[in-house]
Amino acid sequence: MKFDIKKLDTYAENTWCPGCGNFGILTAAKQAIAELVEEGYPLNKFTLVSGIGCHAKIYDYLNINGFYSIHGRVLPTAIGIKLSNPELIVLGFGGDGDTYAEGTAHFIHAARYNADITMVVHNNQVFALTTGQATPTSEKGYKGKSTPEGKWDEPMNPVLLALTAGATFVARGYAYDVKYLTWLIKEGVKHKGFAFIDVIQPCVTFHNIAPYVRERMYKLEEADHDPTNYEEALKRAMEWNYNLDPDAKIPIGIFYRVEKETMEEGFGRKIPYYKVERKVKWEDVIAEKKIV
Amino acid sequence: MRRSILIGGQAGQGVAKAAEVLGKILVRLGYFVFNYRDYPSLIRGGHNFNVITFSDKRLFSHDERNYEIIVALDQRTVETHKKEESENTYYIAPNGVKIPRGENIDVSSALKEGVPPIATNVILLGALAKFLGIPKRVGKEVVATEMKGTFNEKAFEYGYEKGEKNGRIGKIPRKGVYFLTGNEAIGLGAIASGIDMYIAYPMTPATPVLHFLAARKDKYNFTVLQMENEIAVINAALGASYAGAMTMVGTSGGGFALMAEAMSLQGMSEVPLVVYLAQRTAPSTGVPTYTAQGDLLFAVHVGHGEFPRVVVAPGDPAEAFNRTIEAFYLAYRYRVLSIILGDKHLGESHYSMLENEFNPRVEPDRFLIFPKGDFKSYEITEDGVSPRSVPGAIEAPVRATSYEHDEYGITTEEPEKIVAMMEKRLRKAETIRKVVMELEPLSIYGDPEADRVIVSWGSTKGAILDAMKHLDGWKFVKINYIEPFPSSRFLHEVEDAKRVVIVENSSTGQIGRIIAENTGFITEDKILRYDARPFTPEFILRRLKK
Question: Per the domain annotation, does B410 fall within a domain?
């Protein structure tokens, strides 16, 4: 049955900059949800979690269940939701500052825990909402207000980090290739386990690397890449280190996909807790400490 | 009759277990017992000890000198506690440990009778039982149910045979006596409240709750989850609660500090949450396995911005059980942050409690609604409480947010909407205040007409109640709810008093500032203890007479 995608709109005023890569991610997310609903996924089970930053405004623009959490804490919040109610389809949206700076520990552990959630990182390689400071994924030499001489440290490679941390689905998308990103988000949702999608999201105001990316980008699906091969995935992940080297190649698509037991399976979670009726009497509970 | 026995030895020698078993034996025989546990932060070696104080009358505290008996598993116990002995203190120790008086038990030959050296604690427990005149059968029965390995029964019997008989402890007929720690009571209170998820990162002295609940999660069908740090813990807890689970987290001061940001998120998102803060000696790492009440102001003021919260401070395990149930009720009924403020002394000491002291006043529930059609996650209501639903249970979206928002939970920066939502939360605070005032926010002990008043809160209750047995013309005003504070009732209790003394396990007497902040009443008369040790009745009486 055709789903009216307009149902996903809200009355909130969109305040992203004109041309912002976030529009591409929002459109892809809506399209993915619409197509998944048409395939039978119940709309009211979709639950998003956002962090803080430009990306997080997506909470206001998507008419689904949502938790607008705090900076860096998307993943623990999402994991708590999933364990509480495994029927929910949990979509995390984070920024690169959010996920790779403030929330790095959560990112590494979420990859290990393998809860069945999908994490989309709006990676514009800059703190945009706070007006242009370097993040861990900014290229070496990035000049922002806090690094006027240029950022001196090497960028973090989140795709490589996710692979080594044990993520079971690792992908990279491009915010301006909406159709491909839609497909990636759908594959992420369908993946049983922790699905991580790093989305290159050029920031039109502070970090517009669209021309650089467009010239070097290629799709893994068109390059005979085997996403079940972990060593191949590592090699592909190392083709771009998030610096702006002229010789780099930038693969997008699914680097790696493997099925493992999920966190909620490991914890034996099936029934949403809100449906569990507890009829335990307090007198019976305290009785275990009765001596005479 | 108030009798105290110290059992000491190295960590790993089973001092705490022997003390707990002795406590249970004495409660079985109809005595009231308090079991204080003292241990440094290490795994093997060092010096641990317990003090078991018991009587045929109610008691809630231990002694810190003039022990009737010292059971010394090692020489260090004898040396460390020499300064606390009386001239009659009787020592029981294995052969090889030099003692000023008392008896040495030939532990080395126990091996021949199939008792391994690891059971030295139980051998000495047997000898102690003999000395006290505890019936062998009762002792053996409790050892058999409490300790794994049949060699323990043999060890008890061996010690009992070798030991010298002195007194006689007869059985006092009694019914309805419980023996438990504050941490166990909080765990059981959470289960009785219908907990779905307990999430924590290990931190003394809250860790026993994590272990206690993990051992019971299958029986009662709930989840116990340890995560990578306290920040993950509290944010996962808020996620879990938003999605419908009855959720609690537990930690001590350092972990509580890491959680502070998300407590403010609780205030804005109004996602229900129960937090157990087990205080220990601070600042910073402080004295990690010892007690203090120095986090009071921190707990009451935690989180940036203005938002309502509940801080409840139980004074013994029965209260801990009842108040944990109240904490859940208030959190879920009113979408508020409930903080249970305990400490190491309450958490890790065993108390004997009476059946009628377990009496929860409220029944926790998820308090959910499932409307068809439209749903406002932050509906503006007269009492400030927005009815709660959960995602996936209804067709409409259910929202939670850290950002200021309108009734649907959509972000707003409009001044009128900000004021409307802020005032909704203020009305909620007033609603909660009215409810808490019906939950015995303050208790009076002693002579209600007295004009000399002790004011305190939390785990000092036991030592104060036992000290009051030696005081005439005093009453004890115990504050149970620190927030919201029972201001008018408190003022009523102290306004005509000649003397108002604050008793607190801290160096500044923080409850004095809370009282002043809420009522304008100021007292500089304070009995404070900040050597990381809990109060004893004798300490309070000594300071009161100064």
Answer: no
